[in-house]
Structure prediction request, 524 residues.
Amino acid sequence: MIGTRIGNWILTAELGTGGLGTVYRASNAEPKSESDPAEAAVKVLSHPICADPAFQARFPAEMLALRRLTHPNIARYYDSGVHAGLPYYAAEFVDGTDVAKRLAQAGAGLPWPEFFFRIAIQAARALKHAHHRSILHRELKPANLIVLADGSLKVTDFGIAKILNRAPLTLPAEPMGTTGYLAPEFFTGKPLTRRSDLYALGGVLYTVLTGRAPFTAGTAAELMHKHCYTLPDRPANFVPKLPHELDDFVCALLAKDPARRPASAAALLDELDQIRGKLERKGARILLPPSAEDPTGLHAPLGVAAPDAPDPAERRATRRQALVFGTLFLAVVGAILFAFFRPRPAPEALWTALQTKLASDEPDDWDAARDDLDDLARWHPDWRPDDVRETRQYLLERKELARSFTLFGKTKYASEAERLYHRGLKLVQVGDASEARRTWESLATIFGNSEADRRWVDLARHGLEELGNQTPFRPNSNVPTEAIARARKLRESGHKADADAMLNAVEELYRDRPDVIDAVRAAR
Prediction:
């Protein structure tokens, strides 16, 4: 189609092809004024739904809503129409590299000090602008984020998924085996909100950090299952020395329950600013989005420019400002020198201090303990690395436990089939595959003919297939034997109540093991 005129645009080069159609670079055939764009990116849609005459009739009108998006971090929409039976739309041509290609070129995640905040802040600003105009992106992914040479970012394809009105199970548009970034609400039928876009942004930032997406899938059903019910591995598992603040931030964006994600893009930006400040106080050098005042993305130096011929009052004000800024500058330099040259505490002292914080019930103390662990790993990398690693994992699990109890009792199931499916899922998560298998098999048998519960039956059957592909967990068979032996000793020493409690606990935990139940009865 190179050389073809579509609307007011002449196609000059092909930029790429995807599941929706092909994107071309195009020149303006008849610019009406100097302010008219000379070039555009023209996307010609070839998705099967685009051939529907009803869709083609409403397509230009629905695209008009995108004219409200006028933001430096959003590729500007120009116009749209239908050419030779193919809908198209023209948007700002962005001469840059999308994040997906950057990741492919790197073959791994991108260094977080250079890229994370630049991408996160600019994408969040774009979402904030669109959400304030009641427009959701609905299909945010690395390929829709284009980074220019100066580090600025443009988000493309706002609202196109809504206009196409594609069913969730046809997504992602890329070939299966690649990854979608859709929020669980897409699959469960719940209304989409701005928090759905924030989930997708969390998936994009996860990929930026790790070089891999939160979930990959071979089928649409598997993708749906993972987005709705599987927790991704934490980014810190793949990125050595990733600050726990970024790890927690991305995991919060990927929460299954929308209520556990940030409330808005504005709240997200505030949180990013707090994290940035905390990391910079720890000595991190972070690149921020470029601006007119600071084109490098580094913090602009403090200073006051005086007019050519200030009067005495202005000179006095200038001197006061210089004194204030000079004092602040010396304070900052002093803080930096103190941070770098202060005596580092011995590892034993740090370890003792964080044990007190571990025993606290306050989440803020847990964060402080994680900061102590970071100091241990940075200052004393060879000191008890196994204990440091296990303690870090314990803190992650303690925080997850606190979050679970925050939601305790709030889960509402629409049907018994849904409740039983989640029961099986929880059993899988704790490693009890045999009990999960029995639960899901029973669910499929009881509700197999219920059309209203087909979703949960299909998910249960998919879970059974996954269980068949997994290496079964091998429990430690000595645990119940050792516990029964301790119970016998307690009984022999006269502690009958403690012995009975021990045997009751073994019987409850291993009621699916006939050999253990027989041993408990013999011990009684």
The chain has six domains: 5-91, 97-281, 312-342, 347-405, 416-469, 478-523.
